[in-house]
Design brief:
Layout: H1 28-42, H2 44-54, H3 59-87, H4 93-107, H5 117-141, H6 145-176, H7 180-210, H8 218-234, H9 238-246, H10 253-260, H11 264-269
Helix pairs in contact: 1-3, 1-7, 1-8, 2-3, 3-6, 4-7, 5-6, 5-7, 5-9
Length: about 270
């Protein structure tokens, strides 16, 4: 199977000169969220290569990862970085990203992947759920037209990526024959890892550059970045997030209805302090 490597949208389609600066320039919480997201997305080629190696022999999935998914993820990083540079030009994005990459590149290894290919695909569904929820929340938070356009593009990409990983998860579930309990454990593991592996590291490097005088002050870090994370939690699309998180469990409809509301709290865990 071959894939069209053309992108569903391009950075050039965003008119950064139309950004209404007065709607975003003063919002430090939004700056922290956008800049940290731009760091993580810009490092996506590393975990793409980890996944390509993990699925050696599965040419269909490897081709989609390397020729389709990676290009879209890297475009997310480029577009977010371009937006941050335009709105907050005093922030040295390259310096911040290098600092982030030096740490993140060392911890983002193949050892963190699930040993089972099918369970790793369930875990990927969790990651795509988190990113889709993040950009949906950012889209709801802002009223700046260019940022709304950008976050809507990325959110749509992430939902589509989720569907693709889920389709391959179902194929591997049949091959490997694991049950719901193992899938549930894999989902929980990845939910608990998201903060420490990605967003927390990225937020810390944004903070360290903005507040070098507080670089080794965890209380000040929590106070300032905690506001941004609280803003995000208040806008998480809980219903969408829970439905996506539960999908790999393939629960009977009645059970799905019973657990959706109690598990709405699970959505917050993706972005806890």
């Amino acid at each position: 199977m071959s894939y069209n490597t053309s992108l569903p949208w391009t950075l050039e389609s965003l008119d950064l000169d139309r950004i209404e600066l007065d709607r975003v320039r003063h919002n430090e919480d939004l700056f922290f969220l956008l800049c940290s997201a731009s760091f993580v997305e810009s490092g996506s080629d590393l975990y793409t290569h980890n996944l390509v190696d993990h699925f050696a022999g599965d040419e269909t999935l490897q081709t989609w990862l390397s020729q389709h998914w990676e290009h879209e993820e890297l475009q997310h990083g480029r577009a977010l970085a371009a937006y941050v540079r335009k709105v907050w030009p005093e922030f040295d994005w390259e310096r911040g990203f290098k600092s982030f990459w030096d740490e993140y590149g060392a911890v983002c290894t193949a050892d963190e992947l699930e040993p089972s290919r099918g369970l790793e695909l369930a875990a990927r569904c969790v990651v795509e759920t988190g990113t889709a929820s993040l950009y949906r929340a950012l889209n709801d938070i802002t009223d700046e037209p260019v940022l709304k356009q950008l976050t809507n593009h990325i959110k749509s990409d992430e939902v589509r990526h989720f569907k693709h990983f889920y389709q391959h998860f179902r194929l591997y579930r049949e091959k490997e024959g694991f049950g719901r309990y193992k899938v549930f454990r894999a989902i929980l593991r990845r939910v608990n890892e998201i903060k420490s592996e990605d967003s927390d590291i990225a937020l810390r490097h944004v903070f360290n550059q903005c507040y070098p005088q507080h670089k080794d002050n965890p209380a000040e870090f929590k106070r300032i970045t905690g506001r941004a994370q609280a803003l995000l939690r208040r806008n998480i699309p809980a219903e969408m997030t829970v439905k996506m998180l539960l999908k790999p469990l393939d629960l009977p409809p009645r059970l799905q209805d019973m657990v959706e509301k109690p598990l709405a709290k699970m959505a917050e865990k993706l972005f806890l302090n």
